[in-house]
Amino acid sequence: MLEKAGCAIGHVPNVGPAVGLYSDLLLHDMGPHLSDPLPRTGLGGGGFC
To answer: For residues 49 and 23, what is the distance between their CA atoms, to the nearest angstrom?
Structure first.
């Protein structure tokens, strides 16, 4: 299902010892309206994992 939707890159079934995670692990640009006022090092304020 995730492959058909084009989401298999970020939604992975297993990460190390965490089995069945299927979490979205890609960085998304949420834009300036949802940006964090205190951006973390290496991420812009609109970055979200």
So the answer is: 10
Per domain, the residue ranges of the chain are 22-49
Q: Is 3 helix (H, G, I), strand (E, B) or coil?
A: helix
Per-residue pLDDT of the chain (49 residues; tens, 9 = 90+): 667 777 677 777 787 888 887 777 677 777 777 776 766 666 555 555 4
Which residues touch 38 (CB under 8 Å, ≥6 apart)? none
Beta bridge partners of 23: 12
Distance CA 27, CA 25 (A): 7
